[in-house]
């Protein structure tokens, strides 16, 4: 199992860096297939997300694609919403959480499919709106073991008119806040497996470095198409899991 977890960490880290997601979007389904319960998988994923999003945001900031300024309010809202995640996980059944994850992925695919990779409209700058969006995403996304980037990226590109690369970098930065809050909240209810989480998290750092390197070399339109492919893969994994019970 150790080899599987280390390999999973590297793979998830690369996906995290390239697509600007925390890693939970792909890590949770993989852990389910490895035999973990969804609540155990969610607890492991938040540890990995904190580590990969912190390292990835540092790399994106150095490359100039992460502009903190007002977008940090997404993060403040995500932290507040993420604090409620432990309560949500404690109250809902594993199957209900899986259906919520399915709904999140379906919505992300729909919004992102219709959004242009490079908008010709000026990006929206509204700190109160950013805080409200971040809070709602933090509540629901962290509760199903994802950092929220899967939702924030299509919202920033589809509704707020951000360039896809800026949206991807901001979304990964958002994950840092929501996953930290989720880690605190889930720890209170005893859902965090630190041993497996840290093992996957440290392995993911190498993957994050590679993922961000290739993300900055990829054409925006192709980058968007590849994000959509990732979403469809995740959707297939979740549907298969539900059908198999």
Q: What is the number of helices?
A: 11
The whole-number mean of residue pLDDT values reads: 86
Global structural class:
mainly alpha
Number of DSSP strand runs: 0
Distance separating the two termini: 23 Å
Low-confidence stretches: none
The coarse silhouette is globular
Radius of gyration, CA atoms, in whole angstroms? 16 Å
Strand-and-helix sequence, N→C?
HHHHHHHHHHH
**What proportion of the residues form beta strands (DSSP E)?**
under 5%
Task: Please estimate the helix content.
Answer: over 70%
Integer count of domains: 1
Most strands sheet? none
Lay out the secondary structure:
Blueprint: H1 2-19, H2 24-33, H3 38-63, H4 72-82, H5 85-91, H6 94-114, H7 127-143, H8 149-158, H9 164-188, H10 194-215, H11 220-244
What does the model show?
With 245 residues, this protein is an all-alpha fold. It has one domain (2-244). 78% of the residues lie in helices and 0% in strands. Helix 1 packs across helix 3 (38-63), helix 3 runs parallel beside helix 10 (194-215) and helix 4 (72-82) runs parallel beside helix 7 (127-143).
């Amino acid at each position: 199992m150790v080899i599987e977890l280390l390999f999973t960490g590297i793979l998830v880290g690369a996906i995290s860096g390239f697509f600007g997601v925390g890693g939970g979007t792909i890590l949770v389904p993989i852990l389910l297939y490895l035999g973990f319960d969804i609540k155990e998988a969610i607890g492991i994923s938040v540890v990995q997300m904190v580590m990969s999003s912190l390292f990835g945001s540092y790399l994106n900031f150095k490359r100039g694609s992460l502009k903190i300024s007002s977008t940090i309010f997404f993060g403040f809202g995500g932290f507040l919403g993420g604090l409620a995640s432990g309560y949500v996980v404690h109250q809902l059944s594993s199957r209900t959480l899986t259906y919520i994850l399915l709904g999140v992925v379906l919505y992300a695919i729909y919004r992102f499919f219709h959004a242009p990779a490079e908008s010709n409209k000026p990006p929206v700058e509204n700190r109160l709106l950013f805080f409200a969006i971040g809070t709602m995403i933090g509540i629901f996304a962290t509760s199903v073991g994802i950092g929220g980037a899967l939702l924030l990226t299509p919202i920033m590109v589809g509704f707020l008119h951000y360039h896809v690369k800026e949206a991807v970098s901001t979304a990964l930065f958002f994950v840092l806040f929501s996953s930290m809050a989720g880690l605190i909240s889930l720890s209170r209810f005893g859902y965090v497996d630190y041993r497996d989480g840290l093992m996957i998290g440290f392995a993911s750092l190498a993957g994050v470095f590679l993922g961000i390197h290739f993300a900055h070399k990829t054409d925006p339109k192709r980058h968007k198409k590849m994000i959509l492919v990732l979403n469809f893969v995740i959707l297939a994994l979740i549907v298969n899991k539900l059908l198999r019970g």
